[in-house]
Amino acid sequence: MNTIGLTSTDSPADGSQTAGQTPAEYLARAVALATDNVRNAGGPFGAVVVAADGRVFEGVNRVTANLDPSAHAEVSAIRNACQGLGTFDLSGAVLYTSCEPCPMCLATSLWARIDKVYFAADRNDAAAAGFDDAVFYRYFEGDASDREIMPVAREELPPVQRVEPFTEWNDTVGRTDY
Ligand SMILES: Nc1nc2[nH]cnc2c(=O)[nH]1
Question: Which of 76, 90, 113, 141 could serve as a FRET partner for 96 with CA atoms 20 to 30 Å apart?
Fold first, then answer.
């Protein structure tokens, strides 16, 4: 039992719980999920999404368990929220995470239209535990030409071919914008 009275086995990851706790309590829940997850062969990260309607969804890091580099806690919580709510748009939601979101989780939060993010530990705490969050922030902060750990290069194609998917998209009537 953690400080807000929930164990990982009665996790309200399905949105069955409604809002009403303080940011510090949701953060404490995210931290407790992270610690429990280590004991469950996962990475030391946990996250909670409180949707605009107050429903609560949770996620933990399952990168090594699921052989999925994108299975960070925040992404898992966002996936759970989107599946539970039946939407790809989490406008009005708040994300609470045990650790500062990495660039992927931050970008996923932006794409999900999350309103606000609270975190507990930061990228330097993660680095002290051997995680590359701070390294990857530096990767994005530098010039494209500095990206030595993974070069990203444009390959020239004829202009019409290059934008063909966007042309198809723009010409599609009744598409679902996001
Ligand atoms: N914030 C965050 N950083 C990570 N670094 C490696 N995995 C994770 C994760 O799940 N969340």
Answer: 141
